[in-house]
Amino acid sequence: MKEALFRHGFLIITTVSMIMVFSISSMAQQGDIIAGLVAGEQMAKTNVNAGNWFLVGCLGGGCYIVGGLAGLAYASNHEPQVPVYHVLGKSVEYGSAFTESYRKTAKKIQVRNTWKGVGVSCLLYGIIILSAYLDNV
């Protein structure tokens, strides 16, 4: 009887210990993932030059709608270069979360600012056309 209780107690303690070890490991991985997501987003906001993408939109939009669409297509398909030095020596979870977050945030900045450039360019183009029309009336 004592031997059976000892075996059950040992099994319960071993099982609980293993669950705790795996839980702590899982929480550490989640911490790495969250840290990677936050760092990737911040780095993208710092590194991506929004002004350049605005100019891509302005120059593309100035060439009528087709140019604006070409600028938007370029911004949407251009893969941002992730700074590899930032993930060296970090965990795999951190690196993949950082890379995913950086690319997603950078692409969002690229497309949003290209749209702004296209909008401003089209607005200015419309004003020029309207001005030329009103001068001839």
Number of helices: 4
Task: Summarize the biggest pleated sheet.
Answer: none
Q: Spell out the helices and strands N to C.
A: HHHH
Uncertain regions spanning at least 5 consecutive residues: none
Average predicted local confidence, pLDDT: 80
Whole-angstrom Rg: 27 Å
Number of strands: 0
Describe it.
The N and C termini lie far apart (108 Å). 20% of the residues are buried. By secondary structure, this protein is mainly alpha-helical. The chain is rod-shaped. 85% of the residues lie in helices and 0% in strands.
Summarize this entry quickly:
The chain has 137 residues and is mostly helical. 85% of the residues lie in helices and 0% in strands. It has 4 helices and no strands.
Q: What would the keywords be for this entry?
A:
rod-shaped; mainly alpha; 85% helix
What is the topology?
Elements: H1 2-47, H2 50-61, H3 64-77, H4 92-136
